[in-house]
Amino acid sequence: MISFMPTKGPPIARRDVAIALLFAVLAVPFIGLQDGHDGQNFGARPVMGFLILLAVVPLLWRRRAPLLAAAGTLIGIAIHVAIYGTITRCGVLLPLLFVEGFAVAAWLERREALVGLAIVLGSSVVCLSADASAGWSGLTVAVPVTLAVWFIGRVVRSRAGMVARLRERNSELRAQRETNARLEVESDRVRLSAELDELLRTRLSELTQLAEAGAGDDEDAGPALSRIEAESRATLEQMRSVVGLLRDGGAAATEPQPTLAHLDALLLNEKGTEARLTVTGEPRVLPAGLELSAYRVVEHLLAATGDAPGVEVHVDFGTDALEVTVSGPTRSGRRRTEDALDRARERLALHHGRLESEIVGGRTRATAALPVLVTA
């Protein structure tokens, strides 16, 4: 069933308005300034000019509803011919019909496009049947040109359809590539998970053997514990390497976790060369989790200070606690300072630590204490 509803094509665009306006500007004076056939003078020539808009205005819907536009133009031409008879209209209406002939071919399916072609040719016949300049002989030009532009419109539609199908195919191929990539990633994750499981089994078995060997000889317990610690650290690093690959994003860092030994580089990177680091007490290697937390706490406390010179970091290795004090100029925006201190408190809470902070005289000073377990 052929549909004349004006909702099949794209909405009326500026170019549709521009084309219709162009034909209106040409048609109204061209028709309105003419006399009737055989010198007959129409008393309402302006009305004759404006009435031709009945044939021009439907051009607005040439893409949205090509059949409706073509039928509207045919009706408008027929009304004008019935009222005013034989005058020269072909100079404006034939180019308009060529535009509509292209539109019905480019925007409609084949069956509807043929119906549209018939309507456009019918409009040409009605127009030339009462045309003072071209007359019936104008059909020798109007019909071939209309058929040509209709054929060009069909070619354009075919090419546009081909482009649309290629784009759709490219989208499908792109989606398929993404699916294949996800499947490969999932396959790698499964393989890495199996490797992690095997690594844990092997390394835990080795650590168990080392512990059993050390438990049987009190004199060699110290070297055995040292070896267990070294093997444990190595196992931890291997696990981090595998887990890093399993993380989402694929770009997770697998470098060793930062420790207190990296505070110099952190301070230089965050606050520049004028920042100072001092260490007191008896520096020693602490549990990996504790050192990482201490490093992160310093990182958060540095974020609570401004970028002006004068930032100082003091690390004190106490007997039963590690204390870190960060002081520096207060940064602009108290909310951002409080947020950084809150993050430091959350990290300290993991190790039952505490944080004391104050802002005095434009400087922020915060002291974090992390308890250290002492083994006999």
Short description:
This protein has 376 residues and is of the alpha+beta class. A 5-stranded mixed sheet has the order 1-2-3-5-4, covered by helices on one side. Helix 1 runs antiparallel to helix 2 and helix 5 packs parallel to helix 7.
Q: What fraction of residues sit in β-strands? A: 5-15%
**N-end to C-end Cα span:** 94 Å
| Main β-sheet, spatial strand arrangement | 1-2-3-5-4
Low-confidence stretches: 1-7, 37-43, 248-254
Helix content: 55-70%
Number of domains: 3
The whole-angstrom Rg is 43 Å
Tags for this model:
Heat Shock Protein 90; alpha+beta; disordered N terminus; single chain; 5-stranded mixed sheet; 376 residues; 10% strand
Helix and strand layout, with pairings?
Layout: H1 14-32, H2 45-51, H3 53-56, H4 66-84, H5 90-107, H6 110-129, H7 139-215, H8 221-246, H9 263-271, E1 276-281, H10 288-303, E2 312-317, E3 321-329, H11 334-349, E4 354-360, E5 363-371
Describe the protein.
The chain has 376 residues and is of the alpha+beta class. It folds into 3 domains: 120 residues, no CATH class; 68 residues; 112 residues, Histidine kinase-like ATPase, C-terminal domain (Heat Shock Protein 90), CATH 3.30.565. The protein is 61% helix and 10% strand. It contains 11 helices and 5 strands; from the N terminus they run H-H-H-H-H-H-H-H-H-E-H-E-E-H-E-E. A 5-stranded mixed β-sheet has the order 1-2-3-5-4, covered by helices on one side. Strand 2 and strand 3 form a beta hairpin. Helix 6 runs antiparallel to helix 7 and helix 7 packs antiparallel against helix 8. The chain is elongated. The N terminus is likely disordered.
